[in-house]
Amino acid sequence: MEQKFDFDTLIDRRGIGSLKWDCSENELPMWVADMDFEVSPSIMKALRCRMDNGTFGYSIVPDEYRISVANWWKRRHGIAFDPAHVVFAVGVIPALISCIRSLSNAGDFVVVQSPVYNNFYTSILNAGRRAFENKLVFDDGSYRIDFADLEDRFADQRTSLFVLCNPHNPGGAVWSRDDLARIGELATRHHVTVISDEIHCDVMRPGARHTPFAAASETCRQVCVTLGSPSKAFNVAGLQSAYAIVDNACIRDRVKCGFANDEVSEPNDFAVASTIAAYNEGEAWLDAACVYIQGNKEYAVSAINAAECGARALDCDSTYLIWVDCRELLAEVGCDSSAELVRFLRSETGLILSPGDIYGTGGNGFVRMNLGTQHARVKDGVARFIEGCRAFAEQE
């Protein structure tokens, strides 16, 4: 019998220490990438079972955890990983910083494809390395890779790492197998290790498929670290469960040593149980969530683009985020900062979005909107956005 899940009921997240909802009563936060849905019944059941024991001491990562991760990637994304190659971490960003430290030297260049998730820049800086931008080409409402420029970046002797966002945040691009294989060839040629952040890979347009970087070719598999987590797809970021999957033994040893040295490999009592429950029993919930999110995206993109308010929302196959091009609106009023537009929207309408300029070169002029919420809130947020854009254009 088909399971039914409730994504429409509004859940009040104020007063529980939520980063996203730490705002005024009249404000609507649609910025940080977590969702407003109650987690799957399988996760709730597993957490209650763990709570009922009443003890919360030091935890281990059992084989069942690694097996559940490997089975998930095989079932969901068609790639076979050895469970022994799964390395637990408390979060993708802590894992990323640790990988940067363990797989490069102080002062090295780390290539990123801008505009890209802002914490890539922070992680590189905090690890004592320097971000080296390969700017994505924005063409007819979508992004593509400038491979000639990417090879120039890889060929620089100071470059040792490439941090790939697969699928892309904030633009939502789903990279093709051919593009990923080409990256792997360039990385191998120039002795660059690829760290592929695939945290958003499970939230996809129904019918679309994610290609893991490691699945694009055997070359890719041997030159990369795959970072993953149930946190985005299953809304469990606060439970701090993530992992690296590394098939290359030499790279894996360095990653494991780095995780131990940086103390990012010890789980809390709920991390393991929630991940096993999500990956073993949560697939029907996720499928339903992806359908619901796609409905939100189709509504928002259509409404924003039909409003002719100086903004154009990009259609995309992945994530519960949309990337909105506001350059026409900004040019109309002689403004060169999407941050200024975001401040105006919050002040005038209470809508909280992420300014595109935090995502590096090419991000300014865009804003990011999170649609991982109830449809009523999406309609409210889109209405506030359109109203705010029109008011912004009418400023004297």
Characterization of this structure:
This protein is α/β, with parallel strands linked by helices and 396 residues long. The chain folds into 2 domains: 28-39 and 283-393, Aspartate Aminotransferase, domain 1; 43-281, Type I PLP-dependent aspartate aminotransferase-like (Major domain) (Aspartate Aminotransferase, domain 2, 3-Layer(aba) Sandwich). It is built from 14 helices and 15 strands. The protein has helices at 41-53, 63-77, 92-103, 118-126, 147-155, 177-189, 218-222, 231-234, 249-261, 271-281, 283-307, 327-332, 338-349, 375-393, and strands at residues 28-29, 86-89, 109-112, 130-133, 137-139, 142-144, 159-165, 193-197, 224-228, 242-245, 312-313, 321-325, 351-352, 354-355, 366-370. α3 packs across α9 and α11 packs parallel to α14. The chain is globular. The mean pLDDT is 97.
Low-confidence stretches: none
What is the rounded Rg? 21 Å
The whole-number mean of residue pLDDT values reads 97
Specify the overall morphology.
globular
Order of helices and strands: EHHEHEHEEEHEHEHEHEHHHEEHHEEEH
Task: Considering the chains and any ligands shown, give keywords for the structure.
single chain; 396 residues; alpha/beta; Aspartate Aminotransferase, domain 1; Aspartate Aminotransferase, domain 2; 2 domains; 7-stranded mixed β-sheet; 15 strands; 42% helix
Draw up the topology in text.
Blueprint: E1 28-29, H1 41-53, H2 63-77, E2 86-89, H3 92-103, E3 109-112, H4 118-126, E4 130-133, E5 137-139, E6 142-144, H5 147-155, E7 159-165, H6 177-189, E8 193-197, H7 218-222, E9 224-228, H8 231-234, E10 242-245, H9 249-261, H10 271-281, H11 283-307, E11 312-313, E12 321-325, H12 327-332, H13 338-349, E13 351-352, E14 354-355, E15 366-370, H14 375-393
Parallel strand pairs: 1-13, 3-4, 3-7, 7-8, 8-9
Antiparallel strand pairs: 2-10, 5-6, 9-10, 11-12, 12-15, 14-15
Helix pairs in contact: 1-10, 2-10, 3-4, 3-9, 11-14, 13-14
